[in-house]
């Protein structure tokens, strides 16, 4: 990393996360004006967007090459009061909580108490949502059966496609004009609505062009007073870039990065979309510019790396906007889930890995930043050396890049009805979510607590935590004669809650479509312009709503324990099992030992347990897959938790797998923490038994210690392991290279870390199986390797 | 017919080429002082008291270490990992103990693998009758052949048996043109004497073919098992080889023209 990038990186790392009232004040000012009362909703949103961009402060950081900040300064995060309104208490909590804090000064708080809160109270989208969903929905939401993504943040979850690197906003404006000219007021009852939406898009396009011009002017001004000759030239070049893009299609590598970044800022200023925004297949988009300039000599590899470094820092300057209410108390994450995709295949299906792919991998390794996150797409067409280069970065232990199966993603997208070409241009964003880049709105609607639903089944629809009846009465489990009856009752309970969730989503989606259209985002996602329909109203070519199943590993173990201990081995009755879980295994260590250590578990390539995983998966899939949403698309499932498995565990009592009340559930499709005892290949086999192709993404985490990957043979084996998983249609795998601290934790709580494999000396073994002295020694060694 | 197996390890990456499934057979004619798996010496299945920690409370239960498997059961286990064998160019390794004590069962497993086009290794001490070696050599792809000491009196002292049959069988396999990887457990102060190593290399260089050598540095991993199983532990105070000690031996082999690797 050169001196400049090093300084930029350091400045970004040291920037203090703060709450900025700038956007809130501008949006309040606009919404209080008369101007806003006379226009349609989409035009009003576009004018608000324009008002913000025309008046927000311009920030150009020392020595940076890519410009544009969402807030007045790096890590100064705006709020979105039209969507959710922070109270003074929220601001105080954010200011003082020990983790993931945001400083909120007195000026900000005063602006909030004097202007923002008085205006927006009773008018926010969040309040509209809670006023319109029904009682069943509220009950399930409050019990922790599911979460709701759209309650605090707008639908986002989309990624820029290849076309936007070939077009500028002037081009988009002529597309908009064409679409307006084509409106048919005689036969199309929506013609007027479309005109209003298209007019809004036009306003939004002008707004971003003007925003870039403001940067250009400021850069020229800075250049005028700059004493350093080199920087002076640089600032003038940057000014001319900001005059060209995003108004016009980018012509150079530098322009392409700046072009994207203005779009990024536009998307995350318009609203607070989930998973910020994402350039997607960065190595594909940038390669034509890279190739052309490297060949003509106007760009060197070093200058490309420097520009990419400056680009990386911009992502790091933008933490996720903090939430409100109870969630403000919980520490969450600064990460806003922008996931750079590398590798995969081109739209003609050929190997997409190129020279720039490796350059960007170097940048990822060198920058070692949490944001942007990065992933590689691995297709059978990609070379092993690409996977091995990735494995070498994974080995360094910062959890990036994660590794995805392109061939599975393409199958998933075509299963959902996308064209082959759109599928090949797709990838994964956020955590692991599959999408067609540039053409799809794929909204995550909420995490879905499968374990809680089984707990409710065990208690005949009553939540044992509150005593409230919130589920179906599916029968008294102590009277069930067979395991099939248990599964049947669970299946009906799942269907019940999926119905509640889908109904809620179909209401919430309409609330967004009617009140919070996003004309700017609609400009850059096909085919909103052609359709004359907003992104939030089904304007994209594809519209998918995902529900995220959580707790597959835990629930598999729970059901397997019921089958094994109650029905097959008859170690105890269901009544006794219920009593033990209700009492949180108080003084029942032997029983808990039986459940934890001597009952078959998911993650060991044992069909006795894994059969329950496929049953649960299919039950969930059948309840959701292919049902219509309100935007002309369909509901689909994916299997990922982010951090919800911790929250969901906290609202779920003790379970028959031996898990104690309140403890976290398993994450993604990974086995329950410590349940897998037969190594990574067995985990992969278990995880492959569900049909990944029918999901929009699954998440599998594996732990390794750094020394397991120290030798070439370890890396080669990792590459083979990835290939094998992907040959069985596995969607995603991520390797946590474990640190000494985690090993110490494992030493203290061995029962939770039974799956931890360590490299000993010339061979590998389970950490738990090693004598104390050796454990100590490996901890010392890992510490050495990890730091 | 059943085989007595004390463990099946998946994702074994140090027991031959690629990713392997290593099947550990019970029973061993040697009793090496440094053995990692002393519980594997006896072919009998023994009941073992295990203690699990749950919520800070010790819970005892008694379990049998190992299991008897039919051929079908072993084949079923092997089949689980075929996808990994294919992608990594790996396969099945039969190890122990000494797998060839149960050579009839082992041969059937190897034949099944051959039928399924799965690569096999036999990890042997070589201390077995020549008839068995000849018989097995026809049905396996690769031998991992342990050479623990060139000096017979020291071999007898540290392993309980003479090395004469081991060396004879190695020559036999050499005549039979079998693929062999020599495995040399490096135990400082026991078998790293320069003159002993030179003698070992001399013997190896007199063979018709040159074989790669894997140096397996001694590790204390098994020491707690001796206490658990009440077996006399003779390695108290013996240190693991340092990197320099390992490098010295590695360089000796390499300089003598052998392909030497550290670890499996």
Topology:
The complex is a heterodimer of chains A (about 775) and B (about 260).
Chain A: H1 3-14, E1 18-19, H2 22-32, H3 41-55, E2 76-77, H4 88-96, H5 106-120, H6 125-132, H7 135-143, H8 169-181, H9 191-225, H10 229-244, H11 253-270, H12 282-296, H13 301-316, H14 326-329, E3 339-343, H15 355-367, E4 373-378, H16 384-395, E5 402-405, H17 406-415, H18 420-424, E6 427-429, E7 433-435, E8 440-449, H19 450-458, H20 483-515, H21 519-524, H22 528-531, E9 542-550, H23 552-568, H24 574-582, H25 589-597, H26 607-624, E10 634-638, H27 644-650, H28 679-687, E11 701-704, H29 712-727, E12 732-737, H30 740-748, E13 757-759, E14 764-766, H31 772-786
Parallel strand pairs in A: 1-2, 3-4, 4-5, 8-9, 9-10, 11-12
Antiparallel strand pairs in A: 5-12, 6-7, 13-14
Helix pairs in contact in A: 1-13, 2-3, 2-5, 3-9, 6-20, 8-9, 9-10, 11-13, 12-15, 13-15, 15-16, 16-29, 19-20, 20-26, 23-26, 30-31
Chain B: E1 2-12, E2 20-25, E3 47-54, E4 57-64, E5 67-70, H1 71-80, H2 82-88, E6 91-95, H3 103-115, E7 119-124, H4 130-137, E8 142-146, H5 152-159, H6 164-175, E9 180-186, H7 194-206, E10 213-217, H8 223-229, H9 243-255, E11 260-262
Parallel strand pairs in B: 2-6, 6-7, 7-8, 8-9, 9-10, 10-11
Antiparallel strand pairs in B: 1-2, 1-5, 3-4
Task: Describe this entry's structure for a reader.
- The complex is a heterodimer of chains A (787) and B (264).
- Chain A has 787 residues and is of the alpha/beta class.
- Chain A has a domain at 138-146 and 442-548 and 571-665.
- In chain A, helix 15 (355-367) links the parallel strand 3 (339-343) and strand 4.
- The longest helix of chain A has 35 residues, at 191-225.
- In chain B, strand 3 and strand 4 form a beta hairpin.
- Chain B has a nine-stranded mixed β-sheet with strand order 5-1-2-6-7-8-9-10-11. In chain B, strands 3-4 form a two-stranded antiparallel sheet.
- Chain B has one domain (2-262): Aldolase class I (TIM Barrel, Alpha-Beta Barrel).
- Chain B has helices at residues 71-80, 82-88, 103-115, 130-137, 152-159, 164-175, 194-206, 223-229, 243-255; strands at 2-12, 20-25, 47-54, 57-64, 67-70, 91-95, 119-124, 142-146, 180-186, 213-217, 260-262.
- The model of chain B has no long low-confidence stretch (mean pLDDT 93).
């Amino acid at each position: 990393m050169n001196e400049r990038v090093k300084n930029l990186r350091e400045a970004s790392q040291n920037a203090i996360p703060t709450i900025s009232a700038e956007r809130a004040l501008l949006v309040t000012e606009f919404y209080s004006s008369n101007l806003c009362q006379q226009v349609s909703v989409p035009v009003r949103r576009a004018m608000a967007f324009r008002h913000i961009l025309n008046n927000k402060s311009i920030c150009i950081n020392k020595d940076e090459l890519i410009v544009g900040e969402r807030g007045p300064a790096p890590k100064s995060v705006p709020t979105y009061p039209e969507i959710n309104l922070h109270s003074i208490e929220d601001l105080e909590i954010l200011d003082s909580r020990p983790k993931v804090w945001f400083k909120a000064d007195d000026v900000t708080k005063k602006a909030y108490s004097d202007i923002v809160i008085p205006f927006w109270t009773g008018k926010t989208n969040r309040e509209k949502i809670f006023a319109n969903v029904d009682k069943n929905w509220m009950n399930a939401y409050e019990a922790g059966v599911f979460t709701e993504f759209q309650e605090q943040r707008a639908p986002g979850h989309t990624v820029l496609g290849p076309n936007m690197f070939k077009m500028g906003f002037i081009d988009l404006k002529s597309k908009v004009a064409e679409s307006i000219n084509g409106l048919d007021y005689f036969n199309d009852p929506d013609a007027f609505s479309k005109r209003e939406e298209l007019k809004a898009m036009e306003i939004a396009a002008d707004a971003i062009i003007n925003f870039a011009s403001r940067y250009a002017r400021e850069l020229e001004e800075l250049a005028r007073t700059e004493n350093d000759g080199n920087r002076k030239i640089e600032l003038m070049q940057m000014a001319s870039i900001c005059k060209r893009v995003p108004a016009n299609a980018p012509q150079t590598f530098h322009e392409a990065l700046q072009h994207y970044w203005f779009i990024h800022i536009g998307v995350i200023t318009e609203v607070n979309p989930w998973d910020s925004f994402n350039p997607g297949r960065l190595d594909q988009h940038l390669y034509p510019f890279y190739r052309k300039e490297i060949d003509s000599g106007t760009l060197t590899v070093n200058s490309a790396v420097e520009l990419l470094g400056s680009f990386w820092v911009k992502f790091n300057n933008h933490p996720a906007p903090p939430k409100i209410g109870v969630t403000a108390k919980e520490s969450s994450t600064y990460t806003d889930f922008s996931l750079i995709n590398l590798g995969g295949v081109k739209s003609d299906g050929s190997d997409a890995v190129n020279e720039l792919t490796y350059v960007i991998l170097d940048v990822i390794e060198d920058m070692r930043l949490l944001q942007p996150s990065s992933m590689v797409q691995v297709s059978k067409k990609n070379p092993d050396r690409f996977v091995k280069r990735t494995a070498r970065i994974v080995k360094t232990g910062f959890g990036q890049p994660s590794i995805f199966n392109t061939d599975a993603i393409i199958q998933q997208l075509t299963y959902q009805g996308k064209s082959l070409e759109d599928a090949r241009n797709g990838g994964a964003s956020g955590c692991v979510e599959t999408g067609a880049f540039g053409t799809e709105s794929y909204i995550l609607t909420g995490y879905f607590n499968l374990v809680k639903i089984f707990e409710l089944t065990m208690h005949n629809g009553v939540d044992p935590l509150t005593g409230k009846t919130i589920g179906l009465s599916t029968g008294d489990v102590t009277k069930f004669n067979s395991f099939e009856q248990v599964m049947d009752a669970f299946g009906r309970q799942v269907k019940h809650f999926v119905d509640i969730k889908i109904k809620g989503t179909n209401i919430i989606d309409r609330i967004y479509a009617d009140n919070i259209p996003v004309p700017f985002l609609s400009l850059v996602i096909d085919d909103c312009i052609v359709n004359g329909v907003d992104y939030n109203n089904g304007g994209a070519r594809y519209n998918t709503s995902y529900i995220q199943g959580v707790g597959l590993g835990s629930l598999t173990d729970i059901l397997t324990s019921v089958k094994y201990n109650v029905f097959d081995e008859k170690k105890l009755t269901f009544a006794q099992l219920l009593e033990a879980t209700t009492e949180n295994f108080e003084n029942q260590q032997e029983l808990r030992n039986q459940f934890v250590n001597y009952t078959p578990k998911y993650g060991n390539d044992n069909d006795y347990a894994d059969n329950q995983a496929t049953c649960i998966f299919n039950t969930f899939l059948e309840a959701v897959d292919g049902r219509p949403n309100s935007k002309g698309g369909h509901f689909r499932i994916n299997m990922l938790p982010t951090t919800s498995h911790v929250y969901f565990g906290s609202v779920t009592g003790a379970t028959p797998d031996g898990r104690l009340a309140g403890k976290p559930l398993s994450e993604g499709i990974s086995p329950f923490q410590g349940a897998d005892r037969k190594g990574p290949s067995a985990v992969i086999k278990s995880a492959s038994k569900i049909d990944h192709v029918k999901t929009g993404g699954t998440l599998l985490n594996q732990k390794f210690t750094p020394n397991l990957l120290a030798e070439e043979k370890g890396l080669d084996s990792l590459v083979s392991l990835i290939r094998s998983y992907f040959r069985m249609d596995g969607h995603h795998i991520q390797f946590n290279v474990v640190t000494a601290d985690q090993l110490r934790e494992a030493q203290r709580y061995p029962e939770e870390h039974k799956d931890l494999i360590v490299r000993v000396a010339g061979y590998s073994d389970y950490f738990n199986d090693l004598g104390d002295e050796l454990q100590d020694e490996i901890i010392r060694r890992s510490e050495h390797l990890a730091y | 017919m059943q085989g007595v197996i004390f463990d099946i390890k998946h994702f074994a990456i140090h027991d031959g080429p690629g990713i392997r499934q290593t099947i550990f057979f019970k029973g061993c004619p040697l009793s090496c002082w440094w053995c990692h798996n002393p519980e594997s010496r006896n072919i009998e299945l023994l009941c073992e008291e295990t203690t699990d920690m749950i919520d800070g409370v010790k819970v005892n239960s008694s379990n049998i270490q190992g299991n008897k498997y039919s051929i079908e059961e072993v084949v079923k286990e092997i089949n689980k990992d075929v996808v990994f064998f294919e992608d990594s160019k790996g396969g099945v390794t039969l190890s122990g103990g000494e797998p060839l004590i149960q050579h009839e069962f082992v041969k059937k497993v190897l034949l099944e693998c051959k039928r399924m086009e799965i690569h096999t290794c036999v990890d042997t001490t070589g201390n077995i009758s020549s008839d068995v070696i000849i018989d097995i050599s026809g049905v396996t792809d690769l031998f991992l052949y342990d050479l623990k000491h060139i000096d017979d009196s020291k071999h007898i002292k540290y392993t309980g048996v003479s090395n004469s049959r081991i060396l004879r069988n190695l020559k036999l396999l050499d005549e039979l043109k079998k693929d062999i990887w020599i495995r040399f457990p490096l135990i400082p102060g026991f078998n790293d004497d320069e003159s002993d190593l030179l003698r070992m290399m001399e013997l190896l260089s007199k063979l018709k073919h040159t074989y790669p050598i894997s140096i397996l540095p001694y590790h204390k991993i098994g020491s707690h098992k001796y206490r658990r199983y009440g077996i006399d532990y003779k390695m108290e105070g013996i240190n693991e080889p340092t990197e320099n000690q390992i490098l010295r031996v590695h360089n000796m082999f390499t300089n003598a023209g052998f392909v030497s690797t550290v670890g499996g």
